[in-house]
Amino acid sequence: MRNSIGNILTLTLFGESHGNKIGAVLDGFPAGIQIDEDFLKECLTKRRPSLKGETARVEEDHYEILSGVFHGYSTGAPIAITIENSNTRSKDYDKMKDLARPSHADYVAQMRYKGYQDYRGGGHFSGRITAPIVALGSLAISALKKKGILIGTHILKLKDIEDVPYSNDKIDKEIECVNSKLFPVISDVEEQMKEVMREAADLGDSVGGILQVGVSHLPVGVGEPWFSSLEGELSKAMFSIGGVKGIEFGLGFGFASLPGSKANDAYEEKAKTRTNNNGGINGGLSNGMPILFNLAVRPTPSISLPQNSVNMKTMENTKLVIEGRHDPAIIRRMSIVITCMTALTLMDLLLVKEGEGYFQD
Amino acid sequence: MRNSIGNILTLTLFGESHGNKIGAVLDGFPAGIQIDEDFLKECLTKRRPSLKGETARVEEDHYEILSGVFHGYSTGAPIAITIENSNTRSKDYDKMKDLARPSHADYVAQMRYKGYQDYRGGGHFSGRITAPIVALGSLAISALKKKGILIGTHILKLKDIEDVPYSNDKIDKEIECVNSKLFPVISDVEEQMKEVMREAADLGDSVGGILQVGVSHLPVGVGEPWFSSLEGELSKAMFSIGGVKGIEFGLGFGFASLPGSKANDAYEEKAKTRTNNNGGINGGLSNGMPILFNLAVRPTPSISLPQNSVNMKTMENTKLVIEGRHDPAIIRRMSIVITCMTALTLMDLLLVKEGEGYFQD
Amino acid sequence: MRNSIGNILTLTLFGESHGNKIGAVLDGFPAGIQIDEDFLKECLTKRRPSLKGETARVEEDHYEILSGVFHGYSTGAPIAITIENSNTRSKDYDKMKDLARPSHADYVAQMRYKGYQDYRGGGHFSGRITAPIVALGSLAISALKKKGILIGTHILKLKDIEDVPYSNDKIDKEIECVNSKLFPVISDVEEQMKEVMREAADLGDSVGGILQVGVSHLPVGVGEPWFSSLEGELSKAMFSIGGVKGIEFGLGFGFASLPGSKANDAYEEKAKTRTNNNGGINGGLSNGMPILFNLAVRPTPSISLPQNSVNMKTMENTKLVIEGRHDPAIIRRMSIVITCMTALTLMDLLLVKEGEGYFQD
Amino acid sequence: MRNSIGNILTLTLFGESHGNKIGAVLDGFPAGIQIDEDFLKECLTKRRPSLKGETARVEEDHYEILSGVFHGYSTGAPIAITIENSNTRSKDYDKMKDLARPSHADYVAQMRYKGYQDYRGGGHFSGRITAPIVALGSLAISALKKKGILIGTHILKLKDIEDVPYSNDKIDKEIECVNSKLFPVISDVEEQMKEVMREAADLGDSVGGILQVGVSHLPVGVGEPWFSSLEGELSKAMFSIGGVKGIEFGLGFGFASLPGSKANDAYEEKAKTRTNNNGGINGGLSNGMPILFNLAVRPTPSISLPQNSVNMKTMENTKLVIEGRHDPAIIRRMSIVITCMTALTLMDLLLVKEGEGYFQD
């Protein structure tokens, strides 16, 4: 199980940056759920480069749903989608195919796949492959929304510019706000963040940041103790996405310097807690408070500035300049991918949990 | 797949805090590997409370290997182990069984398992269940060591006391140093950290911290792109362990404020990089540099100070005092558990990778 | 996943014929199901040798439920059981440990596990290990019965003596009849079959036969198209049990000589069909008619008569006489094991199916 | 895991009979294996209707490999393929969409997928979906062949016409012979079998039969004890294919009437046995003798003769005539599908087995 994720609801991914088509298969999606293609397209739009300064590779994302949808509803059969790759300039890559780009997968791919990998544009490792995740993940967002479960991802931090974190009491509105924007932030920091991106682009450099994900109205008891904890399943899904290098739930690394008496979430109003330091999860299961987690996002490794590389044929070190325009920050475009992976993970765990009821009444 | 983890090498966990025995089954462990029971016992000892101020529940950890070992070697059949629970005082728990302890799993368990869960001492959620993980994980540590792969976990931070992080050039010695100690730190901070723990204990409070894991000599190419990334599989394993609320690889959240030109790991000496900001992983696969990651560890939620609780029967809020002595910090005892989960995960991914060779000659 | 089976409800098996204990872990069993230990013991009794002429190794099957049960109900946590091995005479095996018993696993085990396997009494391959399957499988039988689903396995054929097959209209009574007996047959053939077993025993030989499994009141739609078809999942479970060498659903091999016009099950009364040639399954899913399948059971390979063997050390051929008393037919004792594996498989598939409802209302 | 099969090498299937495209994804296929598209096309040709009397729906099978292949070799990334559906006449199906065809999946699909399923031409249940299995399975056949492992499937029986079974000593030649033919038989029965098919077609009826699969040169020790037995994994794969209703290994149901002394395979020449009653498998693992198993194949359920049906809307019984031309026997076309599923299963189990070596030297 390498390019598949999920137990009951499984997503299988395929494709390379410069192949004709990329795609994915979503299996285990129950029959009878209305498919909202407008929303699917809206999600694809959010993933596409659109800002001045983002990568010049703009794809139309012509997609085709091959199966599993009939008369506008899911059929219960696997839903397969392919998306065309149109804007591929493979020649750019041929001339530097032996040079390992720093912090890219070139070198590890060469070692694991023994030189047989498709090296063009990162091949199967390319962020391009997140497009089908978004297309099919959008269906999970819709399905959860119908059950009242909301998910939103915003840019909590970009270099030194910070957005406000989700609040416990206004999170529904904040998620709605975030999901309504192409540049997902809660407070009024969009222009400042865009300015940071432009500056990085002008320098031929890139910037990283922090994404915050919020989920509201998830029922209590989703997840499992131990090896399928909600934190574990979500983190596995998150680290599937290139560029994510850290995750923390609730206070996360902030727990390290707090005493237990301040870290614990005391019960205030019935089972509601005043604080939500645990990010809505206890013992691996959702506790009824909003699910909150942060993701550390690396600066885009592709930069225009010259870097030290290694020639994988000769094993000699050499200077490398990666030509073309690059995304100074993938974090904006990544936010919808993260929301989709979150939705797929939660829907899978809900399917496991809900099956139990049959034997319990 | 809830209480099992791993694709080829799978660990299945069972037991409750106050049952007669807890245990685990390790399946897919290849035949012919020497079983080092002295090392197994050493690992169990590290997990046991031993410091003044740690929990008063000291277990002898009488274990029995039920299967899969014959004449001192693994047979290829599943290795099952049980460990006795001796020091259980269930009556302590009966009187407060309806009161949800803050930041514990009591409330989520009540909701998911509808009141049928074994509530005594946290039941199946108890940290006690990590003992069989350690026992069987020790076998994976040994197997990896025979292939030259070393793993060590140390306390990087306890409240405000900090140890030095692993260095790229002396990591082998540092891992050896860390593994030789009951209190795993690299520099001379043991007494300061113990003092912090004692202070917390005296206050009836607890403290959290950060663990750092280092792995050296892992071959290049372990892990998979996308859904079985090395980061993803490791994080899923780590969040299995109660109290872990964050993980970051290499620079992790530090990436957020760096430009790409400083964040990228430039190739210096052949495929060796000068920095190791990516923590030894690119594109989800190991890149030959040491694997480095940090774990945020929550303060132990069991404290002696009075807290706000909810009565799960009446849903009325009430004050709660958890009696008995509590671990002021589980981080020391957790370090060996983390090393074991790391070893199991890496061994599993190596088994997948190595099978490919058969068809490749 | 070698010693585990099931997607949501997983059974993990461990142990060897001559270890101190064997056991299993059942994970994913929903909370709140009453545990009927009397029934569990009754099932274990059915698996034990009890007839004159069956193997002399009679075990008391002292078992211990280690986890997952509290106050007589399942807790939702994994249910682990161990069963003691008492009647082990390992010395019998030491002197012939290099001689591969024909049609046993000795030779394949030697090759796969490179001589490290526990060879005593077949080690991990021994039929003894079916005892924990029966113990935990009995819980699935009970859970299904509460939903009205009945399962029964009877000896359809023993050498040349034949029982009557299940009928479509009286199957509930026939299943009840079969389950009430230690020697599970529908018609009056018990004595004749026992006589066949005695004759084989007297000759130092053994006999095979056919088991028929019937399931009534399984809801429509259990199973999946393609790779998790009801036939596929059941057959995988059945072939887990040593000695099963064939399976056929409904008419099975009888289909080969029928025209489609006679083979098809015509709808007679609403969705009820007159014939049940497909054994209650269409397109991989249950169709509301009784599930019916037959299993070919090999004669016990352990016989007293001298046989040609190979010495696995020297690779020289030699005569072998297996000492001690042997089961002349394992088919009677196997029937409860088959019922248990059937119950576990159906419960697993029901859990998958029922989870879908949550998103469908 | 519904439309995926395999642990390390996984095949995921999608598509419907009347969608624009059907397809599959093969994941875990090692890098560096040469892709033989001529052989792939040859296999697709074998699956296509070609005989007089076979279904009138002839598809060109225009396929597109979307990923995982680069410069003629596998890259290690998932291999996705789509195949066009061109010859679809959906209107034929609209008028009878409420009538359940006997022994088809119409009724179970209606119940499980609540009327949302794509009913046209059987939708996702259609035998049409075996085309991508064949395309990608052909790659596994090639990979195994390079390791010397041969697989062949022939029609052992069609109604009352019988081919000769595989012999133990000439099986390589027999497999080669079978694989060289569009009508796969060993002896001179092709014309007789074709005559049987023509007769059935003339009557508007259909016929069933038995396929025999042979595998030679599989290494000893492939498969696992208990839940991933070679028999179990193969049977699960076989029952994925619609129309298979029985499987027997070696003597199979013939074991029922033999004494153990005749059923056991005595060792004759070192570890070679004279008989191969166990079909090359002991204890769930391959034993070095040829793997042999038979499959019961149901007559095609689509026939021209009038049949009793049920209207799934009104639940009233009614007569049904299925128009158009139908396959009088799918067994010929099924043989290559079976060979492909066998190859995929064996390759998966070999990948598991071979990974163990890394830790064993």
CATH class designation of chain A: Alpha Beta
The assembly state of the depicted protein chains is homotetramer
Most residues in contact, chain pair and counts:
A-B, 110 and 110 residues
- In total, the number of domains of chain A comes to 1
Spatial extent as radius of gyration of chain A: 21 Å
- What overall geometry of chain A do the principal axes of the alpha carbons give? globular
Assess the beta-strand content of chain A as a share of residues.
15-25%
* Strand numbers in spatial order across the main sheet of chain A: 1-2-3-7-4
N-to-C CA distance of chain A = 35 Å
Report the CATH superfamily of chain A: Chorismate synthase AroC
Instruction: Give the averaged pLDDT of chain A, no decimals.
Output: 95
String of helices and strands of chain A = EEEHEEEEHEHHEEHHEHEHEEEEEEEH
SSE class of chain A: alpha+beta
CATH architecture designation of chain A? 4-Layer Sandwich
Any key phrases for this structure?
alpha+beta, Chorismate synthase, AroC fold, globular, 361 residues, homotetramer
Describe the structure.
The structure is a homotetramer of 361-residue chains. Chain A has 361 residues and is of the alpha+beta class. Chain A has a single domain, classed as Chorismate synthase, AroC fold, CATH 3.60.150. Chain A has nine helices and 19 strands. Chain A has helices at residues 37-47, 91-94, 106-112, 130-146, 171-179, 190-202, 230-238, 260-263, 331-355, and strands at residues 4-5, 10-14, 21-27, 63-65, 69-70, 73-74, 79-84, 99-100, 150-158, 161-162, 209-216, 244-249, 267-269, 272-273, 281-282, 285-286, 291-297, 307-311, 317-320. In chain A, the strands form six sheets. The first copy, chain A, has a five-stranded antiparallel sheet, covered by helices on one side. Chain A has a five-stranded antiparallel sheet with strand order 10-9-11-17-12. In chain A, a hairpin with a 2-residue loop joins β13 and β14 (272-273). In chain A, α1 (37-47) crosses α4 (130-146) and α4 (130-146) crosses α9. Chain A starts with a strand and ends in a 6-residue tail after the last helix. Chains in contact: A-B, A-C, A-D, B-C, B-D, C-D. The interface between A and C is medium-sized, with 24 and 24 residues. β12 of chain C pairs antiparallel with β12 of chain D.
